[in-house]
Amino acid sequence: LSSMQSSGSKSCRCPSFKLREVASMYFTMIAVFLVILVVALQGSAPHGSDFPYKVPLDPQGLLELSWNVSYPEQDVHFQLLIRDLQFGLLFGMSDRGEFENADLAVLWSDGHNSYFGDAWSDAKGQLHMDSQQDYQLLGARRAPEGLYLLFRRAFSTCDPKDYLIEDGTVHLIYGILEKPVHSLQAINISAIHRGLQRVQLLKPNITIPNLPRDMKTMEITAPDIVIPSQETTYWCYMAELPDNFPKHHIIMYEPVITAGNEALVHHMEVFQCAAEFDSFPHYNGPCDSKMKPDRLNYCRHVLAAWAMGAQAFYYPEEAGLAFGGPGSSRYLRLEIHYHNPLVFEGRRDSSGIRLYYTATLRQYDAGIMELGLVYTPVMAIPPGEDAFILTGYCTDKCTQLALPAAGIHIFASQLHTHLAGRKVVTVLSRDGREQQVVNADGHYSPHFQEIRMLKEVVAVFPGDELITTCTYNTEDRSRATVGGFGILEEMCVNYVHYYPQTQLELCKSAVDPGYLHRYFNLVNRFNDEEVCMCPQVSVSQQFFSVPWNTFNRDVLKSLYSFAPISVHCNKSSAVRFP
Amino acid sequence: LSSMQSSGSKSCRCPSFKLREVASMYFTMIAVFLVILVVALQGSAPHGSDFPYKVPLDPQGLLELSWNVSYPEQDVHFQLLIRDLQFGLLFGMSDRGEFENADLAVLWSDGHNSYFGDAWSDAKGQLHMDSQQDYQLLGARRAPEGLYLLFRRAFSTCDPKDYLIEDGTVHLIYGILEKPVHSLQAINISAIHRGLQRVQLLKPNITIPNLPRDMKTMEITAPDIVIPSQETTYWCYMAELPDNFPKHHIIMYEPVITAGNEALVHHMEVFQCAAEFDSFPHYNGPCDSKMKPDRLNYCRHVLAAWAMGAQAFYYPEEAGLAFGGPGSSRYLRLEIHYHNPLVFEGRRDSSGIRLYYTATLRQYDAGIMELGLVYTPVMAIPPGEDAFILTGYCTDKCTQLALPAAGIHIFASQLHTHLAGRKVVTVLSRDGREQQVVNADGHYSPHFQEIRMLKEVVAVFPGDELITTCTYNTEDRSRATVGGFGILEEMCVNYVHYYPQTQLELCKSAVDPGYLHRYFNLVNRFNDEEVCMCPQVSVSQQFFSVPWNTFNRDVLKSLYSFAPISVHCNKSSAVRFP
Predict the structure, then answer these.
(1) Residue in A142, A147, A562 nearest the CB of B549
(2) CA-based diameter of chain B, in Å?
(3) pLDDT tens across A203-249, in order?
(4) E strands, A329-451, where?
(5) Mutate which of B10, B16, B104, B141 to disrupt the A interface (most A C-beta within 10 Å)?
(6) Is A112 close to B2, i.e. CB distance below 8 A?
(7) What is its main location (chains A, B) (predicted)?
(8) pTM, entire model
(9) Around Cβ B532, how many Cβ atoms within 10 Å?
(10) pLDDT tens per residue, range A43-93
């Protein structure tokens, strides 16, 4: 052994240094922060264009968050505007917006000095300073409108106390300190003014397509209405395309929000009505009003959808969404969800959506396809489940029949469940192997359903499978939740936006009803229970009478993963492929 | 906001520094290593007492590993003696001794220079330098007997490529480089001389009790036999206590290994025979010989057990294991497992176990209790499972009936399964909540069954529950593996050593046979299969005829976790508590 050297690679994601080294580096970091702070306090303002995304955090708009995302650096830079700073604030992230087990950046003042730190809250909501400081303060600046705080956070840290920033919904939480506090631990998180805001933090990094010269705009907006003084309102307003409006392509749309109402307009959708009716009433009022004409229920074809925090939506350069022309209704329905928890009175609003469209049709019509589960009670979730999984299949046989040989390109996706939905994911599978995630939201909320551009366009070919999995929480329910259209029934849907348009509108599945019948039989015999299986009793009724012990729950899961499925591979919502 | 400071705790388990900082620290580490190496090469030899544990790695004894464990530092220091160094060696750890997905320290030479590094092998066995160097070289020293390498490793690193050193069995692997290699990546791991050795790396840190002055020793050793020239031999030798040998307490025992045979003697046990027979034949030969008298099967009460790498076994100061006296057989059976893969011929051996005993009886007799599953075919594992779990319960009702109010103290444990066993764990549960792990082995091997001292004595009170869970792998089997005594049947047992001795010898469970009958019925009806359930067909036969689809597998798991259990709470192997 003539000489010895130690050898290794230079990349290192998570080194385990000794405590002493860490402590000294930590104090260096503090020193660096202080230097940066001084620079920032004297330096120039951050540019608005540095932070392309913006959302108000609270209903009054006292806190306004702007941010940008760097995929090469795998981090997010936040700029938080605090309009009326008192004794500090909490900002952070948690699984579903709760203040327990949350990952928080805290700015607090004891009346003399102010402090900033990365903290976490335990299962009881008690705050603790984090052993690893991952919210890195980069600067602070006083301006006429308030205090700007600038800080960064890596998507993923090596700290088990930290939130992992992923694609999909992120539940941001905030709290306002209205009294001085002498330490982080002294903050009583349950006694402060606080709230939550859902955003898609990791926006896709998309190049904006070239827009044609002949592009026109059309605003579908509420006609200066008064926002009702109640927490939740769904407002319906009927608009109409001009007579003999020929076929156009929508190539982009963006929100139009009345100034001052940014924190109240939660989400908006423009639907096209069914072509089978010649006319629709000109309604303008709450969607749940007794006065709302029934016929408005036939306006369900989504043309545009926007939710808080979302930006303009661009179609890919090759495609546009057709509207106008023969076989297409002239009637549009605008639906606005106003979220008014502070019950402001007399606020007037003319928000809506601005459509950008062109008469120079693009190469392809865009289409929307529905993936997931058929709306049927045979797919059910037992009560008291914290994470029950149901899966819907768009099978290889269906894509073989219905897709063109050159395939289709999915460029956007809107996930949809009812109130028990907690996660939704669609994966593309080829030859039985998972190839790619089409869209995933591990913190999905039924209250935040955006159409999201995909980071990458997904090509789907004949023979591919699209598997959509939904996770539900029914801990607050006492009886089974069956599939269906009702708000207390469930859905598992991914509306994928793709081109070129095909005849395939719906590619979904459900368990074979014969096997479900065997399940009810088994429950009956195994548990010595009387579950009525007379033909006149509905599947829902049978589910409601199952005694939900662990065995019956487990066997239902096993059934769903084992039993054959019945596939709906439909040209329209009625006509099936042969 | 008068001034700002950054605040945080000083403890930091796993910081995420920027690449630049890491790289510079890494090169510092190399420099430190080189300095240490020079010091070590010139300095004094490590003391043998610094490394209390020692095991040969290979059957020839060319590699000898010594180590110590520091619980305050949470690390292990290794001293590896390489008697005949050629061009380097690999040493490391993996889940079950495989060379794929292994964590390795590699010393290699290109003929001119030698290198040391922390590496890992991927699923194909290809070596890669680890991005984080966690095997830290502390020194190297040439001595007449060979080269000593000294290095340390933390139990847990922050590197997902690293093996986590836990309690229980660790599969050590080694490989010898017989040719120069030009890089780590060039090592073809499948072409080198290599092997595995199982050890309990994290020995408990036990204070040795005071030993009495009147302590005597007795050696139960093989009578200078010739080790058979075959890979595996279980040797049986009958020994006898003196006539009228009164009751004594065994308070300690240790191995006696014939010099030169350290790598061949794999494990040894001393059993006491059943008192119901007045005499036993004086057999001395292989345990599987046709000549072995049947009566030796009645010698099954364990007095002492040792396996490679284990040290002396000490009873706690309050207790000793009774032997001798009325009601106790004079006959002992020594069983030695010789592992002779290189098929050495003519090796003579007189290894065995030295018992240390005293006539001054200690306060308590020690007892052995059997926890886990009853030996019955109703507990079965489907074929083709990679990790199937079976659980046996020593219930609150049984401990309530059988244990003294002051409780018992478990101080040692021997885990036992047959060939499909992969993990075994026993936990203590009180009022339905897990209190404490009694003994756990996440890398359990049926080929390495030691009696292990517990790190902490576990107190068990009336009303406590002891839950033993075994994990099995049946990927190489084509039919169900049922519970039973046969080598291809399975067991799930934890022999716990405790004091004071009680009448409770066995506290185990199995699924209620009536529910298993319902399971066979269900399989029959659900799958339209004909599984014969005639009374004359055994449970094993019924298991063998189950079609093992995912549904039948899942439902069997659900059954085992849901169905009522039948509990055996026995005074001896036959008499149940009322």
Answers:
(1) A562
(2) 93
(3) 998 888 889 999 999 999 999 999 999 988 999 999 999 999 999 99
(4) 331-339, 348-349, 352-358, 364-365, 367-373, 380-381, 388-394, 408-416, 421-430, 433-441
(5) B16
(6) yes
(7) cytoplasm
(8) 0.78
(9) 11
(10) 444 444 689 999 999 988 899 999 999 999 999 999 999 998 999 999 999
Q: The tokens 């109402």 sit on which residue?
A: A261
Confidence of residue A288 (pLDDT cuts 50, 70, 90): confident
Q: B246 preceded by cis ω (within 30°)?
A: no
State yes or no: pLDDT of A431 exceeds 50: yes
Question: Given a cut of 50, is residue A254 above it in pLDDT?
Answer: yes
The answer to whether B483 and B379 have CB atoms below 8 angstroms apart is yes
- Token code pair at residue A572: 């329209």
Residue A28 has pLDDT above 50, yes or no: no
Which of A156, A196, A129, A123 shows the shortest CA–CA distance to A13? Answer: A156
Distance from CA of A411 to the nearest CA of B (A): 34
Residue A495: strand, helix, or coil: strand
Residue pair B398/B569 in contact by the 8 Å Cβ criterion:
yes
Structural tokens at position B484: 């039973």
Contact list in B for residue A14 (CB cut-off 8 A) is 14, 16, 132, 158-159
For residue A380 the two structure tokens come to 């059910």
| Dist. CA B126–CA A367, nearest whole Å | 47
In angstroms, the CA B96 to CA B59 distance is: 19
Tell me how crowded residue A113 is: count the other CB atoms within 10 A of its CB: 13
Q: What is the DSSP string of B49-107?
A: GG--EEEESSTT-SEEEEEEEETTTTEEEEEEEETT-SSEEEEEEESSS-STT-EEEEE
Contact A140 B112 (CB under 8 A): no
Tell me what ipTM this predicted complex has: 0.71
Which of A403, A389, A571 lies closest to A490 in space, CA to CA?
A389
Taking the Cβ of residue A116 and every Cβ of chain B, the question of whether any pair is shorter than 8 Å is answered with yes
**Per-position DSSP letters for B454-512, written without gaps between them:** EEEEEEE-TT-EEEEEEEE--TT-SS-EEBSSSTTSB--EEEEEEES--S--EEEEEE-
How far apart, in whole angstroms, are the C-alpha atoms of residue A270 and residue B259? 88
Determine if the peptide bond prior to B286 is cis (ω within 30°): no
Q: How many CA atoms lie within 13 A of A170 on its CB side?
A: 24
Q: Which sequence positions of A are flagged as catalytic? A: 234, 416
**Residue type for B303, please?**
L
**Any CB–CB contact under 8 A between B133 and chain A?**
yes
What Rg, from alpha-carbon coordinates, does chain A have? 27
Domains of chain B: 53-199 (2.60.40.1210), 207-362 (2.60.120.310), 368-515+567-577 (2.60.120.230), 516-566 (no CATH)
- Residues sharing a CB contact under 8 Å with residue A173, sequence separation 6 or more, in sequence order: A90, A91, A92, A93, A94, A97, A98, A99, A102, A104, A194, A195, A196, A197
Alpha-carbon Rg for chain B in angstroms: 26
Kindly state the DSSP code that residue A95 receives in the 8-state scheme: S
| CA atoms within 13 Å, Cβ hemisphere of A328 | 22
Structure tokens at A339: 């979220």
Amino acid at A400: Q
Residue B226, classed as helix, strand or coil, is strand
Q: What are phi and psi of A234, to 5 degrees?
A: -105, 115
- Asked whether A189 and A122 are in contact (CB, 8 A), the reply is no
The whole-angstrom separation of Cα B324 and Cα B301 is 13
Query: CB-based contact (8 Å) between B551 and chain A?
Result: yes
**Neighbour order of strands in the sheet with A63-70:** A53-56, A63-70, A75-82, A146-154, A136-143
